[in-house]
Specification:
Layout (H helix, E strand, L loop, with lengths): L1 E7 L4 H4 L13 H13 L7 E4 L3 H13 L7 E3 L16 H11 L6 H6 L1 H10 L9 H16 L7 E6 L1 H11 L15 E6 L4 E3 L1
Parallel strand pairs: 1-4, 2-3, 2-4
Antiparallel strand pairs: 1-5, 5-6
Length: 208
C-alpha cells in the first residue's frame, strides 16, 4: 500500500489578493509559510520517502517548509509538470468573484462549489471554450496527466511508502473526481494547506 499525502500549497500573494490562479504563479505570503510549517508539525509522525510538487514556486516552497518542520529537510523534492494546476487561460489572475460568476453563467446560472465539483468536466469545457490564449487543456488531458503521474509514482516505490504531494485546488478536486467520485459530495472548497490521503494498493486508488 502506497499512501500519498496530497496538499494544496500555502496561501500565495494572488490568493491573498483574491485572484484566480492557475498556471500563473506567485510566492507564499507570511500566512502561507506559517500554515505550511503548522502542517509540517502535524505530519511529523509520517516518514516520507519522497516529495513531488508542481513546477510552481508556491508548491515547491510549501513542500520545503512542510518537510523542514516535520524534521525531514533532506527528503528529496521533485518538481513534476503533471501536477501543474488547470490553466485558466484568459481568466488567469481575474478576481475570484468574477471568475466564479462567469463560470456559473457558462454552466447555466448560479452554481454552488459542490455542484461545480460534480460538473468538473463541464467547468473545464466552459473555460476552454471561452479562452483566447489557446493554452487551456481539456478535462481529458488534465485527467490523463494525473492518472499517468500517480500510476507511475505508485509503482515506483515499495509497499508502505509515504509520498508527499503538493499541488493545487482544482487538481485535488480532479483527483477525487477521477479516483473516488463517491466522495466528491464531501468537499466544497479546498483551502490552502488542506491535506487529503490517497492510497494505492497496486491496482486501485482510494481517497481516505
Amino acid at each position: 500500500m502506497i499512501t500519498f499525502y496530497i496538499v494544496r500549497h500555502g496561501q500565495s500573494l494572488l490568493n491573498q489578493l483574491d485572484r484566480a490562479q492557475g498556471w500563473a504563479d506567485s510566492p507564499l505570503t507570511v500566512l502561507g509559510e506559517q500554515t505550511a510549517r503548522e502542517l509540517g508539525q502535524a505530519l511529523s509522525s509520517v516518514i516520507f520517502q519522497a516529495a513531488y510538487t508542481s513546477d510552481t514556486i508556491r508548491a515547491f516552497n510549501t513542500a520545503k517548509l512542510v518537510l523542514k518542520e516535520s524534521g525531514q529537510p533532506t527528503t528529496e523534492i521533485y518538481q513534476d509538470i503533471r501536477l501543474r494546476e488547470w490553466c485558466l487561460g484568459t481568466m488567469e489572475a481575474e478576481k475570484n468573484t468574477t471568475f466564479i460568476e462567469r463560470v456559473s453563467g457558462w454552466l447555466g446560472g448560479a452554481v454552488s462549489f459542490s455542484e461545480m465539483n460534480r460538473r468538473l468536466p463541464e467547468v473545464a469545457v466552459s473555460i476552454q471554450q471561452h479562452d483566447a490564449t489557446g493554452m487551456t487543456e481539456s478535462f481529458e488531458q488534465i485527467g490523463e496527466r494525473l492518472k499517468e503521474f500517480f500510476l507511475s509514482i505508485g509503482l515506483s516505490y515499495p509497499d508502505r511508502s509515504n509520498i508527499l504531494i503538493v499541488t493545487h485546488a482544482f487538481m485535488i478536486k480532479t483527483i477525487i473526481y477521477l479516483f473516488d467520485f463517491e466522495n466528491i459530495e464531501k468537499i466544497s472548497k479546498i483551502n490552502n494547506t488542506d491535506c487529503i490521503r490517497l492510497v494505492f494498493d497496486g491496482e486501485v486508488f482510494k481517497v481516505m
